[in-house]
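Annotators were shown the component list below and the corresponding predicted structure, then asked to write short factual statements about the assembly.
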Amino acid sequence: MKQVSKSKISFINSLKLKKYRIKEKLFVVEGEKIVSEVLKSNLDIKLICGSPEYLEKNEYDLEKFQDLVFEAKPEEMKKISSFVTPSNVLAIVSMPESRNILYKNEDLYLALDEIQDPGNLGTIIRICDWFGIKNLICSLNSADLYSPKTLQATMGAFLRVNVIYANIAEEIVKFKNNTKNHVFGTFLNGENIYKSSLPKAGFIIMGNEGKGINKNLEAMVDKKLFIPSFSELDIHAESLNVSVASAIICSEFRRNL
Amino acid sequence: MKQVSKSKISFINSLKLKKYRIKEKLFVVEGEKIVSEVLKSNLDIKLICGSPEYLEKNEYDLEKFQDLVFEAKPEEMKKISSFVTPSNVLAIVSMPESRNILYKNEDLYLALDEIQDPGNLGTIIRICDWFGIKNLICSLNSADLYSPKTLQATMGAFLRVNVIYANIAEEIVKFKNNTKNHVFGTFLNGENIYKSSLPKAGFIIMGNEGKGINKNLEAMVDKKLFIPSFSELDIHAESLNVSVASAIICSEFRRNL
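Structure shown to annotators:
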């Protein structure tokens, strides 16, 4: 088995930074579960780097990637890993082109307005996958889909959800031009989500962790919603995590399907 | 203003480890928002360590803690911080005694069976706070409430939710002896949660991130529930994050209140 070279190690390491991922149009997935999903996908694999144990155990699955497979010693895996506990395999993958969304009457869409935390973004992609939301729109200044923390939190769901980075206002115009459906968002002065009659399809905006939905998008929302708190205490529960709020909203839109 | 000493810095650092937190019965909260909530709470504060800017800005609120307040330079804050981006204040706090739960007919209880990730635990405490669940039971081998990542993810909600570490089976026996309510858990062969008629009160068990609910507890569940996936793809969404699943379940129990 070919050993991973020093120059490959430093190349893999460079991909920890967004600017090099963009320049090379490559990203890194790490961990047995996610690598195994990527190997089964249509994505273009550029390199696989694993521990001797991993490579031996997965010999059969790796056969068709033969020239791309390299062995790494534990200390080398530690160098290239993005995590505190390095896993025993990682793969370099070509970024697929993101697909423009063709808005349809029967679909539900989710948009994230300046989500900052990669863990939240990844968790929300996993939520989209679960609730059959095929397209996720992120504002241009949102967290990076290809950061290791985002990919990790998706648990592979990024392979099944089309994530695009775009101007959300422009996407809403396209959505309005192509469907007869409404735009929803959560606001403190919105209607109790549990008492609202929600449609099967539409466009939901979730706001930034700290400051919520931007004013220019708020003006484009047809129906403001609100998740009520059930805390009885005087000192109120202040807010829900944005991924938790996304889950509750998606659940409410889907529960009557 | 008194400067933080080297010995205090190394003492604060020791509290990053669970064994020293338990030995000293102390924990550390970090960040302006959470420290400000702790200062307003009934907790016993042992030390406050902040940047000159923080101490100046919060002079009035800190007056009654005078002897406990120390100034730290940026490089000292960096040393004692548990986070990549150090905040400008942290406080050492006495661990409060956890209160035994007196199970009541009208309350909803949540139990976590071997939750491993501190971020998940903290997010679930925040969910309990939001949904008015006053008591959270963690199995003895669950993630630590007082780890910096857990506290951070609670966003202060740990001040409002009573978290106990206990044998869940024994707690269920107490719950059954003191209420006429049922025990719920999520399982792949459970009833669709959206079609189930859920009561206002009860005892909900959430399982470990990887292996779900332990067999001995499964045997004590009165009603098995299931959160259905709406993914249309052949390759299924595999699972929901445990904190996301907890949020959806709590939302379903509360939505008809």
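Statements collected:
1. Chain A has two domains: 6-94, 108-254.
2. The mean pLDDT of chain A is 94.
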